[in-house]
Design brief:
Elements lengths: L3 E7 L5 E5 L19 E8 L3 E8 L4 H4 L13 H13 L7 E4 L3 H11 L7 E4 L16 H8 L1 H9 L11 H22 L3 E5 L1 H12 L3 H6 L7 E7 L1
Parallel strand pairs: 4-7, 5-6, 5-7
Antiparallel strand pairs: 1-2, 1-3, 4-8
Helix pairs in contact: 2-3, 4-5, 6-7
Length: 240
């Protein structure tokens, strides 16, 4: 049974009384409790909803990140520094609890999650969902940023790298990634409400960029300028 808070707003009084449904059942609510006159204008019933948590974090640094390469769908491997990033994320989540964890099909997402899971024996279910996979840079995958600048110039580089709706050749723009992340978030909320569980998500810089845009209500400009650290955890609540 959901817990209720019942608030009495008292006419001609400069105070209000807050009652707990379980301590003061309905039949006793209208009894005088130390006051000679209670002028009740309205009674509000507020269901105190339970909130489940979603913890989102980026994979640790990869060799491609280290070497300033466009990674995209390439299965780049985590570096020693990347493992340290994952350890920091694990420390941030050490006192948190979650029963389900999401990762993508790329090893950097799974490897980071594996470090985190060492402290979370309560997590019994892992789900692979590539709607939270990295942005596909298409023909730019595996190329260094410098190579792209030298071959195509700064204007093309800036458009492909950080503009909202300009796709690199055979790749995705931020607007494309937002579409799949938006559907993922909708399904995620339904999943959390149905299963009533806390969830962890090991994802990627650009999918988290769009996740935060949707969940935090960021503008397109703010989203394009956003930086997602390797060692930070973003926490969100889903009310049930």
């Amino acid at each position: 049974m959901p817990r209720f808070s019942i608030v009495f707003i008292l006419e001609k009084c400069k105070y209000y009384q807050h009652y707990d449904y379980y301590n003061y059942p309905p039949h006793s609510l209208f009894r005088e409790r130390g006051y000679k006159k209670l002028f009740i204008v309205r009674i509000g019933y507020f269901i105190m909803k339970k909130e489940f948590k979603v913890y989102v974090f980026r994979h640790g640094q990869t060799d491609f990140n280290r070497d300033s390469k466009f990674t995209g769908f390439v299965d780049a491997k985590i570096t020693k520094t990347g493992l340290e990033d994952a350890e920091i994320v694990a420390e941030r989540l050490k006192k948190k609890k979650f029963a389900v964890a999401f990762h993508t099909s790329l090893s950097r997402s799974k490897d980071t999650l594996n470090v985190v899971l060492k402290s979370h024996t309560e997590c019994k279910r892992l789900i692979c969902d590539d709607r939270m996979v990295e942005r596909n840079y298409g023909d730019l995958n595996s190329k260094t940023h410098l190579q792209v600048v030298k071959k195509f110039g700064f204007e093309k580089y800036d458009d492909w790298h950080r503009s909202w709706n300009v796709r690199p050749p055979k790749g995705e723009c931020f607007a494309d990634v937002e579409k799949r992340v938006k559907i993922f978030i909708k399904d995620l909320k339904e999943f959390v409400k149905k299963e009533k569980v806390n969830v962890a998500i090991s994802a990627h810089g650009n999918s988290i960029r769009l996740f935060r845009k949707i969940m935090d209500g960021l503008s397109v400009k703010e989203t394009c300028e956003l930086y997602v650290p390797y060692d930070k955890v973003f926490e969100y609540g889903v009310k049930v």
